[in-house]
Amino acid sequence: MRHQHAAARRRVRTRLWLAAGVAALVGIASVAPLPVAPRTAGAVASGATAKPPVFAYYYLWWSANHWKSALGPNYPISASPLPLPATLDASGCGTRTKYAGNTLTDVPARIYSQDDPGFIEADVRQAAAAGLSGFAVNWIGTGSATQTATSNPYSARLRVLVAAVHKVNAAGIPFSLWLSYKASASVLSASYISNDLNYFVRTYGADSAFDRSRSPKVTVIWQGSRKYAASTLSTVGGPLRSKLRILGDETSWSTDRARYLDGNAYYWSSQNPYSNPQSFQQLATLANAVRASGTNPDRTAKVWVAPLAPGYNKQLAGGTACVPRKGGQTIKTLYTGNAASHPDAFGLISWNEISEGSYVDPMTRYGYQDLNALSSLIR
């Protein structure tokens, strides 16, 4: 555990170096035991089969106050080093909090904010070094027709993330973005979603930070689309699908809903290959249904994005399910099993969804275990 604490502390120092203006690539290389080789988007060695790109869901809610709220009032937030806030049993589950009010199982070396200078850029560089194709950045606006980049913290951080991608791209590092629209936690009105996505198109519709390697349109995943009536999908998507490639988050697929979506990116963070080995066939069946539902209005084929997670543990945050990581074996098992659905891409759940225990961002408990495992799969 000592080496994991040290790795996490070095990662924080790397981000401080970025803020101070020291070369970012030097900082990242000092913390991550990941091979970094020049990559060209879409390039494949002669005779090799191209692997699906991996886009990691990236959340923008990590302010210092969010950490304090999630850890609860009894956690020693100023301790150095920060103690783990919970214990797990030998199975990797059996979660017990050590502090009343805490909902997390892991912590970084120190409490940070994504508003800290250089922090988001360090995440981009680290993900790119591991071989990820990009982030599916989870964002929501204010629902206003007149919103701006400073209307809420999500929009301000999205602007910083876009600037970070521009910076690493200028250095010859391939990395790009999808949008993961945050519409699952609560059901939003059609006008709210339309105003948000119209703001996004105005601001980023032509921005080079967003992936267009597979479509000239920016890819948007409508999180929780399954909670919305087909009429809402039509109202929102009708005017926007000429500008955005809108993928659903659907647990099942029907032709009446398929007409309003360009594909499916099912967010299955709690997929358990041990208690539910049939899950691989379930995903393959869903993928086949997506592909069999016809083409999109622009004559493109429906897109299938398979889920991928290192594990899952929401036992302290109101859930009951737990999928143990098994020393990095779980992400390898899910990658191999879900690849049988022949995905156009993998949606990694996640870079930093720490509350659900599905993150690969190196912290105290697991260090680089799962990020290294993922990198070996990608490469």
The tally of helices reads 11
User: Given this structure, which CATH class is correct?
Assistant: Alpha Beta
Widest sheet: strand ordering: 1-4-5-6-7-8-9-12
Approximate helicity band: 25-40%
CATH topology: TIM Barrel
Uncertain segments: 1-10, 12-47
Shape: globular
| Strand percent estimate | 5-15%
Distance between the termini: 27 Å
Q: Structurally, how many domains make up the residues?
A: 1
Averaging pLDDT over every residue, what do you get? 90
- Biggest β-sheet, characterized? 8 strands, parallel, barrel
**What string gives the helices and strands in order?**
HHEHEEHEHEHEHEHEHEEEHEH
DSSP E strands, number: 12
Let me know the CATH homologous superfamily: Glycosidases
Q: Radius of gyration, rounded?
A: 20 Å
Helix/strand structural class: alpha/beta
* CATH hierarchy: architecture: Alpha-Beta Barrel
Structure description:
By secondary structure, the chain is an alpha/beta fold. It has a single domain (51-378), classed as Glycosidases (TIM Barrel), CATH 3.20.20.80. 33% of the residues lie in helices and 13% in strands. It has 11 helices and 12 strands. The strands form 3 sheets. The chain has an 8-stranded parallel barrel with strand order 1-4-5-6-7-8-9-12, surrounded by 4 helices. It has a two-stranded antiparallel sheet with strand order 2-3. Helix 4 crosses helix 5 (153-170). The longest helix is centred in the first third of the chain and has 19 residues, at 2-20. The two termini are 27 Å apart. The model is unreliable at 1-10 and 12-47 (pLDDT under 50).
